[in-house]
Amino acid sequence: MPSPYKMTVDLNVLDHLGINLYSNIAAVLTEAVANAWDADASVVDIRFNSDSSEIEIQDDGIGMSIADMNNKYLRVGYRRREDSSVGTLTAKDRPVMGRKGLGKLSLFSIAEIIEVHSAKSGTKHGLRMTVDGIRQSVKKHASLYVPDQLSTKEVKVSKGTLIRLKKIKKQRLGRSVDALRKRLARRFSVIGKSHGFQIKIDGEPVTVEDRGDLSVCQFVWHFGKKLPDGAKVSSIKEHQPLPQRMSSWDGDWSVSGWIGTSQLPKQLDNEDAGNLNSIVVFARGRLFHENILDKLNDGRLYTKYLTGQIEADFLDSDTEPDIATSDRQRVQEDDPRYVALLAFLKRQTTKIEKQWTEWRRKHEVQRAKETIPALDLWLKTLQSGFRDSAEELISKISALPIEREDDRRELYKHGIMAFERMKLRGSTEKLVASIDNLEKVLKLLADRDALEASMYRDIVKSRVDAIQQFQKLVDAEAKERVLQKYLFDHLWLLDPSWERATGSEIMETRLIEEGVIVAELSKKEKLGRVDIAYRTMAGKHIIVELKRADRQMKLLELQEQGQTYVDKVRKILLKQGEKTPNIEVIFVIGQPIAEEANNPERLKSSMAAVSPGSRIIHYDTLIKSAQESYADYLKRSKELDKLEQILEKLYE
């Protein structure tokens, strides 16, 4: 007895498989180019008319007969690799790229009208399909869609196939033709003379160089003995081979391609090509996975410098299940082949990270020493146990994305000072392991004690002197502006952990110079007296307002003034792109206000209303706290400073 059941496929499925499946033009054109490859084309030319309202994709392949058009191209889900009459290799012995038979539907995601012109064995023909026509067929519950036939005069090819896209959805076109060129270059590994296949855009060939990734690589690791096509040895400072076979896994699985690192992370931020901080995976010459780097789950610093291309044909084997998603941009991540590839790449990138650290230190340090000879002099003063770490410090500063060389030199200066401090307080395990007797260890530690004490003495003495000078200004009831400038330049008086911050000069200028304030400021804010001492501290924006020591202030007056400052700074920060600025106001006054004694809760809530963390500090309290903090340091430094003790004995 025959089954009473049957499965049908509604034309409405075309909405999901084509019209709404692909979101960008590069992915769509990838499908059309793959079809040209499978048709044994030597050239596929993509042409845009002047206003990009039409796109033509023309190849010089074998073309299609009417029977081919109906049985293969118009047949949704046609699987060429499973068609025994055709096979998995083309007449030119190319491995067939197409697999699911859905790619041609992608054209509907960027165009309302599609014409297909084709010629084979001297016979040409063509058809026209429209999104509207398909949807009308869906509404009528038709079992099939019948495209319009083009007249022979309308067909514009005598060889191969021409696809003409009309009524383009321009929101999906992307940035520019140049951007498309770069993105297509990163979607195919079979472009170039060696593969006998060329992609053109408006007549200009898409090249390996258009990918933009290999050209910014400083170091390259290649799977196999040879450097990748397009590699310029002059720009690649170091390169090393990696194994191709995934020997720890069953099956004849191997990879080719390369992984590289740029000198600076910003070199991988390509507006046209997209994010080059990625490793693309190809199978059978076309993109199979857009970025497998994300799947390595490696958060170490070196990953910010990585780019690359991996060819892994075993992911798209004819004899294994298809693991690509419908849009062929991702894969089924639980498949053993994909799991094996991830594990293999994790092992290789671990090797890369270690080698990258060594190479980068070598080249960045050498470049820095040639540019700034003083760095070489400093390194020569260090004992060998410290030199590797010092070179690593220089290499990291050298790699930072800093445009002004003066800023980088300043960073070297502070980096050296910080290194000397950390050298004194750091672990000695590495040093002890490199020294062959105890006498040398004790001598080293003695030298460290003396230098540490000397550094404490110099730093603390200058700060104690600054505290005393500040107290003189307060006692003399100096003008607010004088006090403000002094505290502005010695912000550690408010908190010993605060050093003078950098990077806020533009903000300070906008706050001080009248007429530069952003338009969103109110008239009251623009006309107000701007005497803000502003600094950025660890992500926090500090506003310091000082009053003369003899001036009696009222809480409401402070609250209103503080709120004006907060509003002003917030508007400028929002204008600069900081969405949730953390602003704190500190009032430094001499005379206590009434609420401090009789209503401390009101004082607390009023300050919180200005901004979280805002507070009032008295000059006397500030000076006393600073003296207590640094008096202990000064006492300790004098006790430890061997050099100072020796100098004192000279006068006994």
Please describe what this structure looks like.
- With 652 residues, the chain is of the alpha+beta class.
- It has three domains: 1-208, Heat Shock Protein 90, CATH 3.30.565.10; 212-371, no CATH class; 463-632, Restriction Endonuclease.
- Helix content is 40%, strand content 17%.
- The protein contains 19 helices and 20 strands.
- The strands form four sheets. The protein has an eight-stranded mixed sheet. Strands 10-9-11-16-14-15 form a six-stranded mixed sheet, covered by helices on one side. Strands 17-18-19-20 form a four-stranded mixed sheet.
- A hairpin with a 2-residue loop joins strand 7 and strand 8 (204-205).
- It is elongated.
- The N and C termini lie far apart (121 Å).
- The model is unreliable at 427-450, 500-510, 512-521, 525-532 and 646-652 (pLDDT under 50).
Write the layout of secondary structure elements.
Blueprint lengths: L12 H7 L5 H14 L4 E6 L5 E6 L6 H8 L37 E10 L2 E8 H9 L8 E2 L10 E9 L8 H9 L12 E4 L2 E2 L11 E7 L14 E5 L13 E7 L6 E2 L3 E2 L3 E5 L2 E4 L16 E6 L24 H36 L1 H9 L2 H16 L5 H21 L3 H5 L4 H38 L4 H10 L15 H8 L10 H5 L5 E5 L2 E7 L8 H21 L6 E8 L4 H5 L1 H11 L4 E4 H22 L1 H9 L2
Could you name the key traits of this structure?
652 residues, alpha+beta, Heat Shock Protein 90, Restriction Endonuclease, 3 domains, eight-stranded mixed β-sheet, six-stranded mixed β-sheet, 19 helices, disordered C terminus
Strand content: 15-25%
Number of separate strands: 20
Q: What is the CATH superfamily of the largest domain?
A: Histidine kinase-like ATPase, C-terminal domain
Low-confidence stretches: 427-450, 500-510, 512-521, 525-532, 646-652
Termini separation comes to 121 Å
Shape: elongated
The major beta sheet can be summarized as:
8 strands, mixed
